[in-house]
Amino acid sequence: MAAVGGSAAACAVLLAAVLLFSAPATTEAYDSLDPNGNITIKWDIISWTPDGYVATVTMFNYQQFRHIAAPGWSLGWAWAKKEVIWSMVGAQATEQGDCSKFKSSPPHCCKKEPNIVDLLPGTPFNQQIANCCKAGVIKTFNQDPANAASSFQISVGLAGTTNKTVKVPRNFTLKAPGPGYTCGRAIVGKPTRFYSSDGRRATQALMTWNVTCTYSQFLAQKTPSCCVSLSSFYNDTIVNCPTCSCGCQNNVTHPGSCVNDNSPYLQSAINGPGKITGQPLVQCTSHMCPIRVHWHVKLNYKDYWRVKVTITNFNYRRNYSDWNLVAQHPNFNNITKLFSFNYKPLTPYGGRINDTAMFWGMKFYNDFLNQAGPLGNAQSEVLMQKDSETFTLDKGWAFPRRVYFNGDNCVMPSPDSYPWLPNASPLTKQPLTLPVLVFSIVLATLLAYV
């Protein structure tokens, strides 16, 4: 009987282990610096038509520091029945599909799984609605709340004309512009309320459903996109980005993986096949990252200390517009002055700790980070007041804990490689070893002659 019980217990443990290791990785999209960040898609049916409905679809970016850059978003889904898109305002389907069964006035799109993109700036006004036509670019609420949403209007046919006959689309996908976002299922919710410009009248959608999409850097790219290097005034050592942070030079088996800035073939490489797909063409470096962030501890005053931050673009194929930088450091609760960057504190821990800061360039000054070359950098200095109880230059305290560029986590150097204080250099880490050894030899010699 005991053997049977032991066997059952062993089987239970084995089954639990199998379930544990076969379970999907549900936490890989979680970001502790932006735990509630997501893009919410709201689908509001505003009127019925003879064979369907007209809806306004809006994407709200609720992420604190991750925006959708050019060439912008593309949104897809699968229809639940045999719906078609009769017309659109503020966006368009990339393909019409097979509309041969319609004898006259074919629909805008007949595909079972349409793919929708935003219209470009300069679109005629009769094809626009509010929050449309930005080439798919969506800013963050922190940087530009007025442009943190994108909308379009869609007229759907063969869909049903009541709340009971309309079916919610399935399998939503959001590309921005590549992979990275995972969307949940559409959930029917409380109808959205709309208020008139004077705020005296409220109307509501006939039906509303919401879709939540979360971002995972692991899904977006196989390798990191940025790295961090460090230096300080008290040590001549410059700690470079870790070797192969974002990839390794491999021009032997994969020609064109990187290019030198003085190469005679630079321009032809820039205009090569990867230009169409947007594949990065980076300058040949030991780290092979498109972006490097350099943190330099510049000065140490009696009551203040100063840091210089430099962002360098090593990508020959991309200009980073409306970029942002997020860093984590315990002294960010005492930022006194900032030069040439905008700044906003982030409180990812419910306001209890203020150790995370978001920086971005000033409009029409340095919010546009040029491609690799002499002008491909932006820099600023941060002046912080010291907290006498915590401030120290020892053991790497003056360097950031984490750094993000455009929402992606950057590769940090190993802590044991950080610049050492002169009185805490590796050579003096074990100051008693040599004296103790000498003393032991002398003592042994003296005892031998006693």
Automatic annotation (TrEMBL):
Superkingdom of origin: Eukaryota
Q: Which residues form the signal peptide?
A: 1-29
Name residues in a coiled coil: none
Does the record bear Glycoprotein in its keywords?
yes
The record ties this protein, via InterPro entries, to: COB_C (IPR056900), COBRA_pln (IPR006918)
Which biological processes are named by the entry's GO terms? cellulose microfibril organization; plant-type cell wall cellulose biosynthetic process
Residue span, COBRA C-terminal domain: 225-419
Keywords attached to this Swiss-Prot or TrEMBL record, sorted alphabetically, are: Glycoprotein, Signal
Any single GO CC term annotated in Swiss-Prot or TrEMBL for this entry: plasma membrane
Q: Which family does it belong to?
A: Belongs to the COBRA family.
The name of this protein is COBRA-like protein
Native species: Lolium multiflorum
